[in-house]
Amino acid sequence: MVGLVNITPEVVLAAAAELDLLAERLAGAAALTAPATHVLPSGADEVSLMAAQHFNKAAITHDQAVAQGILELHHAAATLRMQLATHVGEDLLKSSVMNVVAGNLNI
Question: Which of 17, 22, 80, 107 is the 20 to 30 Å CA partner of 56?
């Protein structure tokens, strides 16, 4: 048997807002630190060029991972909002059906 689920819309909306804020903080931190993670070669020799290339590949991978994390946080927030809207809509529909049935039974 399915138990009752108590959902407080304000709490769900607050959680979605927190996810969006977290994504924005992560984007801000990434923007501030990006110049430090991408490096210029210290010289024109092959070792300096290869080392800089290696570090920059790692920095690009890091940037892509951060961007994916930001996207997923925003997506999770949007999913919470969408699921809440669906739940509230279904709840209103069920309550209106119950009101009609109760009215027909003269309860």
Answer: 22
Which pLDDT does position 7 carry in this prediction? 87
Closest CA to 20 of 67, 66, 64, 78: 78
- Residue 107, pLDDT above cutoff 70: no
Beta carbons of 27 and 69 less than 8 angstroms apart:
no
**Neighbour-count burial for 73-87, b at 16+ CB within 10 Å, e otherwise:** bbebbeebbeebeee
pTM, two decimals, is 0.78
Distance CA 9, CA 89 (A): 12
Nearest CA among 105, 24, 97 for reference residue 66: 24
Report which of residues 6 and 88 the model is more confident about: 88
pLDDT of residue 1 exceeding 60? no
- In whole numbers, what is the pLDDT of the chain averaged over residues? 91
CA distances from 17 to 6, 55, 76, 80, 98 (A): 20, 35, 10, 10, 33
Q: What are the sequence ranges of the domains in the chain?
A: 57-100
